[in-house]
Structures are given as C-alpha cells and as structure tokens.
C-alpha cells in the first residue's frame, strides 16, 4: 500500500482594510510578478465591494501559494478607475500591500510583494486618503 502526501497548493487569503473614511466601492487587485506594477497583464484575482467607514474585509478563495502584491483604490465617483491629478498623484483613497506609501514615484512589485504560504493567511492594509498630510 502506497501512501502519498498531497501538499496544499492553494488557500484563502483574507485582506483587511482600515482607515476607510470615504464612501464608494473599493477595488482590491492581486498581482503576480512581471513588468510594471500594477499591470493588468499580471492580474491574478480581483474583488469589488461596498465598504462603510472604518474597516472592511475581502476574502480571496483558491489563491495559489506564491509571491504577490496588492493594489487597492476606492472609486468615490463610480467611474471604474482611480482618478489622479497633477503628476499622476491619486485623488481618491488607495493603498498597497506592505502599507507601501509612495513618496517620489510609484509602487514597485518588490516594495509591495509578500509571500502567500498558508491557507487562511491574513494581511492588514491601511488606506491612504491623501499623500499631502492627514492620513
């Protein structure tokens, strides 16, 4: 009799968002490495949900274990995209995994990446409502 051990290759990832101060749908996108980040060519999974002020949670099922980065934005005006102003600075709330906060230039996969290695893994991300003071 042969007994084979099967290791899990997929699991669920729970993404908890805090510092939600505005209303509007929140879009959470998980990316794998490749090219510029975030780039939809490397999009793995996405979810959109209505969140009220405070905290919001998204659960991604059947995500293959691996290295990922997350980009989030809150669509306050319902146009389906992240609005930006001068020099591409977001004018709507946004966030990245590792709580990366851009100073000069945008995010990179390396600065935002994390290892997803176990089922029911959780990460916490704080929304950025403004790059110019406040939160």
TrEMBL record:
<dbReference type="InterPro" id="IPR018673">
    <property type="entry name" value="DUF2141"/>
</dbReference>
<dbReference type="Pfam" id="PF09912">
    <property type="entry name" value="DUF2141"/>
</dbReference>
<protein>
    <submittedName>
        <fullName>DUF2141 domain-containing protein</fullName>
    </submittedName>
</protein>
């Amino acid at each position: 009799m042969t007994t084979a051990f099967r290791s899990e290759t997929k699991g669920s990832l729970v993404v908890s968002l805090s510092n939600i101060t505005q209303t509007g749908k929140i879009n959470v996108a998980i990316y794998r490495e490749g090219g510029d980040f975030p780039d939809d060519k490397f999009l793995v999974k996405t979810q959109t949900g209505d969140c009220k002020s405070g905290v919001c949670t998204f659960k991604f099922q059947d995500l293959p274990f691996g290295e990922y980065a997350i980009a989030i934005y809150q669509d306050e005006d319902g146009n389906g995209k992240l609005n930006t102003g001068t020099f591409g600075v977001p004018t709507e709330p946004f966030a990245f995994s590792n709580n990366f906060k851009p100073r000069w230039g945008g995010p990179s996969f390396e600065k935002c990446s994390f290892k997803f290695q176990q089922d029911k893994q959780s990460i916490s991300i704080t929304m950025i409502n403004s790059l110019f003071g406040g939160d």
